[in-house]
Amino acid sequence: LITEQAEIPLPRGAEMKGRCGTNESELEISWLERAYAIKLFFLKEGHNTSRGQEALWRLSRVQFTYDTSERTYFKDAVSPGKHTASSHRLSALVTPAGKSYECQAQQTISLVSSDHQKSVQLLLSEVRIQPFDITADFVFSEEHKCPVDQREQLEETLPLILGLILGLVIVITLCVYHIHHKLTANQVQIPRDRSQYKHMG
Description:
Layout: E1 15-20, E2 24-31, E3 36-49, E4 52-67, E5 82-86, E6 92-96, E7 100-103, E8 107-113, E9 119-124, E10 127-129, E11 143-145, H1 147-186
Parallel strand pairs: 7-11
Antiparallel strand pairs: 1-2, 2-3, 3-4, 4-5, 4-6, 5-8, 7-10, 8-9
Pfam family, one: Lamp2-like_luminal
GO biological process, one term: establishment of protein localization to organelle
Membrane topology: Single-pass type I membrane protein
């Protein structure tokens, strides 16, 4: 059994090109003289919800082309050559229309390779992307955070919120006690039992 494994990072100097449409957009990123290329296909569609018609966009397809004869990441490939890995029935990065998608957490998208002996996984992290409704170059709209980031943000802020609420409850309790103590201290206690009165005579 021969196993090959390669991690292929996306370099900063990668070439990018794309096509922006009203309901379909495409982003292509390539590097090392097109030995590696990834294409991301986006769809914008409307959905009926309880609040009426809502538009969403999503990543609908991913295609990754890689060359195992390129020796930067594949040292001794068994069957060198160009291969393509694609996603099937993908619905990822789902975002309300008019917003950008942001996710710091790592997400995995599994791809099926043309070389059936290879499995390919696309790992995404620190992503900020907006394929539709772009108002200006290099300016993102309000972000829609992925569920993992939302949960992490809640986990970070929840102790702070609970601490503030607890502190507020303590302050209110002390204020009520202080006010009650002041009011009861100024009142003269009248004995209810007549035997406690001093006889005047």
